[in-house]
Every structure is written in structure tokens, then in C-alpha cells.
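Q: Can someone sanity-check these two? First one:
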Amino acid sequence: MARLVLISHQLGQQTASQTMLAKLRTYVSVWLDQKSKNVLVYDASWGGIVSCGCMYRWVDKKPKCVNVNDDDPSVLDCPTLSDPGMDFGNAFYNDHHFHYGYHIYAAAVVAKFDKDWAVKYNEKVLTLIRDIANPSPEDPYFSPFRYFDWYEGHSWALGIVSDPNGKNQESTSEAVNAWYGMYLYGVATQNQPLRDLGETLLLSEVHSTNYYWHVIPRTNEIYPKKYDHTIVGILHDLLVEFQTYFGQQGFFVHGIQLLPITPVVHLMFDPFWVASAYPKFQQYCQAEPMCVQSGFVTFLYAEQAMIDREAAWSNAMALKDDVFTIDCAGGNGNSRTNTLYFIASWGNHPQPHWPNDMRQSQCPTAIAVQPVRAPGTPHPDADKPSGVGLWWVLFGALVVVSISAGLGWFIAKRKPGQEQEQDKQALVADA
């Protein structure tokens, strides 16, 4: 929905954009106002925002969410707190940056067009941001940088449940989406320290993605030669796997590293690497009908656009509508419009490390939302990270100290949900 708001606005379809913006505003506010059945609550034990979860009972032939105490309906009885598998382990702090990243991105889009909404909900959005990327150790309510590992240069998604192979992360693209959402929310609310922090996390995660997850077998010096895949499914401290948590099929492995489809993918996916990775993705997808049935075929065509835009357009146009319905796990969070927009926009914002012919290939069909800059983004053919790229990552880690100090105004001893009038006044002035 957030993508459609931006795309329709960019293409001058203001009626459609405003109609969808109204719906998006409602959908985002439901969670921030705690009006969803699966309510978000603050966990004082570990210092974070977790989902309460739902146990369903059939009432009048309809499922009803039950998460209150039978003896006292005013008291929540959250099933997620005792089940590490419910809601992907949200109450055990798995994947918060994945999950809340979507909320933050959507909130950034609403805030871009509705400054009054941004003023009203700023504190609640910042609370989600503090949960996944609190910049200050002085904040007594949230752990600092819960998911990002500054030593490794990327995030870990595993929460508080131990694993013999250490921390792990599956979808780097969803991690990047979280930091992209932070960056965009900082831009939308004119919060310079937040914008800079989001950009720093984003560029560091992108750099690590291109080094650890995107693999060129012939130049690979990280993993054993027997690992002949072009991409990593799950990276652990002590293990690398070519599979996902929901399936071993190769198209799942490739697809999970490309969702959601947003302009920031331009930074993550280098045509040099795609030239070797796409044929593998295509092979996996063509071998199993489930690739289409699950909707993961949409990510295949998005990746195809990076090396053959015309063919990708034709393939996306030929997809049946049911690929994008609720029954397709991969397609239901995407849309044909977003897929076509991405395909048409590929190459309009070439990166400095692309070959000359790709940098000069411009497509007038549509213009992508300008992605953040990527100084020093490494060439994936390199057998080690580029010096410029490492310099940027290290520099980013150093400036976090100053960014954290700058962000002190919104985290200093503030309880989750507690609003401060000076923040509202600052946003009103900016608007």
C-alpha cells in the first residue's frame, strides 16, 4: 500500500494517491493506537515492544482472537510470551527489525504527506525505532542497537533463544528495509540525526550483504569451494546455509533476499553479481511450479530487470492476477504495479560502480524514487571489500557516536508512549 501511494503520486495520479493514503493512514494507526486484536505491548523484562499474539476460538462460525485473562478481561494474557514459535518468535525478540521495518516504512510514507499525522504519532513511531535501533545506552527502556552488530557490520535476527550455531540472519533485504524506513522517516519529519543514523545502518548492511550474502563462486574466498551457490540463505556465526526457515527450494533462498521490492534494491543488487545469480534463480523457479504458486516468481522478474528489462516487463505483464492475492505468500505483499514500476525504473539511477553501458542506459518510462547515495559500494567481483567501502563503513561506525548524542533529545529517560510537547512543537515548526 505504501509503495502504491508513492508510485501514484510520482506518476501524477493524485486522486488514487490520496485514496490509498487514507487507507494506509488507517492501517498504520490501528497498530500504533493499540486497536489491533494482536496488540503491541511493552515488555519490561527485556525492554522492548512485543506482539501479544492471538489464540483463536470459533464464535458464530468466525475466528475470534482471545488474548485476555478468563477471570479478568481487563488483563492481557499474551500467548506469545510462552510460545517461541508464535508470531515468528516476536515476544522472544526474533526479527523485530524485519517486522517493525514495514511499519516504520509505511509511517514514513504517511508522514511525508500528512504532517499533522506525523506530529500526532511521532512518539509512537520513534518507540518502534527505539526497539530495533535505540542509539543510546542511557535509555533505560530499550537496549541499544538490539539487532545491529557493529563489529560484523550487519544485523542478526535471532532473539533471546540460544542457538548452537550462534546468531543468524536470513533476509538481508528486510534488514535493509528497516534502516531504509528509518532514513525515510527522518527525512519526512526533518529529523537530521535520525536520518543520518538510518543511512549509516543502511549503507553498512548493504556493504555486508554484497560481501557475505551475495557470492561470486569463482572469486569466493570467504566460504569453502564446495559452496558453489551464488547466494546465502541463512548466515550464522558458525554456519552458512543454502535454505530458508520456510523451505529448502532455491527460489525461496533467492527470493527472500529481494523482498520487499523498493528503490533501495538499487544499492543491494549489482548487475555484475546478478549476471551470475539470475540464471540460478531462473533455473530453480522453472523447475518447480510452486515458484509461481507462491508468488516468488515476482522477485525473479524484478531481478531479471537488472540485466534484461524488456524481457522482465513482458514476463511480469504475463503473470496471472492470482499471483498477487492473499493465497500467494510471496506475491501478496507485492503488487503488479510495484513490480512493473521497479522494472521500468531500473537504470534510471545508475550507481558509480556499474559498467559504463549500464550507467548510460536510461529509461523514460518511469522515474524511481531517488535512493540514498552509496559512497564506496564494493564491486562484487572483488576478492575482498574495497578500501573505499571499508572506509565508509568504519567512518559510519565512528559517526554513530555523534549521531547517538544528537538523538538524545528523544530517548532521554522517556517511557514508551510518553509524549513530549517540545517534540510536537518542533515538528509543527518543520511542517
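And here is the second, same format, sequence then C-alpha cells:
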Amino acid sequence: HLDELYKIINPERGNEQSLTEQLKPASEHLQQVLDGRDKAVVGTTYKHLNDLISKIKNCPFFTEKRAREVEEVPESTEAEAEDFVHIKSEDVPHADSDEVQSSLPPEVLPEQPEPEQ
């Protein structure tokens, strides 16, 4: 649902409408998400989207503690930036491994039934 929301709140280049004409409905959609209105949009409701965004925002993955745990990477020179890092497939942990599973955010909200119209 977030991908669909993205499509209706972001102006498109090469569109026949002016930027101002595209931003008006986009801002209205964003306001309704912020208000958590129980109105249907992109296969769900603004309220469900608000809850989902709040859950993502409050996920421990985005806390300061998590940010401090991430090792600082030194800035590379332009020459180094052009080099690629080659990783052997056996060095990549399997998706079901404890290492990968422990780094995933908590379970997201279950799919909400579509509101009756």
C-alpha cells in the first residue's frame, strides 16, 4: 500500500499538469493520512496507512541506539568509489539464518480488510 501511496503523492515529470496542479491533490492525500481518516484510498484506508507509517517510525530499527551500533564507514576517495566489492555467495548469510532474522524489523500490521463503500 505504501508503494501505491507514493505514486499518488509524488509529482511526475513530463505530466501535462503543472507542478502546482499535481501538488494540490498530493497535499490533500498527505493531510488525510496525517489525520488518520477512515476513508478508502489505494486499496486500504488513510487510517491504516497512518498506523503503518507510525509502526515503521516507532520500529526499534530506527532508534538512536541502533544508529550508534552501526560501525562508521570511513569516506572513500573517488578512485576507491569506482572499485567494486566482490562477495562470494557462500559469504552471504541465508535468509532464514539467525543473523538475518534478528536484523529484521518487528512484524508489520496484518492486512486490513477493504472498507465497505
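A (reply): Looked at the second one. The longest strand covers residues 40-41. The mean pLDDT is 78.
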